Amino acid sequence: MSTTFTHRNLPRLLLQAREAVMAHTRPSLREHALSDQQWRVLRVLGEHGAVDTGRVAREAFILGPSLTGVLARMERDNLITRARDPADQRRTVVEATPHGMKLVKRLGTSIEAHYDWMEKSLGKAKLTQLYGLLDELIALEQPS
C-alpha cells in the first residue's frame, strides 16, 4: 500500500539544501579540525562577540547537553574561553580567543566567497528571495 502525498518532502529538501551548501564548507572546516557544531559556535561569537551560553545554544542550534561537550573541546583547543558573567553568576559567557577569531576570519573569507558565487549563480534577487522565504517559514512555524 502506498500513500500519495500532494506536497514534496520539505524537511528532506531543506536537509538536502543544507548538505549541498555544507559540502563546500566542510573540507575547510576539517582542515582546521573543526566540526560543523564548532564552526556554528565560532560564527555566533564572530558575529556577536562574547555571549552567554543560552544565546550560543539558540543561535548555533545546539542542545544544552551537546553544547557542554562542544564548548569543553573548544576550550581545550584554545578556540574559546568561558567565564561567569560578573553581573549574574548563574550565567556563563563564552568568547572566542584570538586563535578562534583568526579561524573565523580565515574561514569566513572562503565561506563569503562561496556565498558570492551562489549570488552570482542564482542572481541577487533570487538569493534575497530565498533568504526571505526561509525567514518567513521559520517565523510561520514558531509556536505562538
From TrEMBL:
<protein>
    <submittedName>
        <fullName>MarR family transcriptional regulator</fullName>
    </submittedName>
</protein>
<feature type="domain" description="HTH marR-type">
    <location>
        <begin position="7"/>
        <end position="139"/>
    </location>
</feature>
<dbReference type="GO" id="GO:0006950">
    <property type="term" value="P:response to stress"/>
</dbReference>
<dbReference type="InterPro" id="IPR012712">
    <property type="entry name" value="HpaR/FarR"/>
</dbReference>
<dbReference type="InterPro" id="IPR039422">
    <property type="entry name" value="MarR/SlyA-like"/>
</dbReference>
<dbReference type="InterPro" id="IPR036388">
    <property type="entry name" value="WH-like_DNA-bd_sf"/>
</dbReference>
<dbReference type="GO" id="GO:0003677">
    <property type="term" value="F:DNA binding"/>
</dbReference>
<dbReference type="GO" id="GO:0045892">
    <property type="term" value="P:negative regulation of DNA-templated transcription"/>
</dbReference>
<dbReference type="InterPro" id="IPR036390">
    <property type="entry name" value="WH_DNA-bd_sf"/>
</dbReference>
<dbReference type="GO" id="GO:0003700">
    <property type="term" value="F:DNA-binding transcription factor activity"/>
</dbReference>
<dbReference type="InterPro" id="IPR000835">
    <property type="entry name" value="HTH_MarR-typ"/>
</dbReference>
<dbReference type="Pfam" id="PF12802">
    <property type="entry name" value="MarR_2"/>
</dbReference>
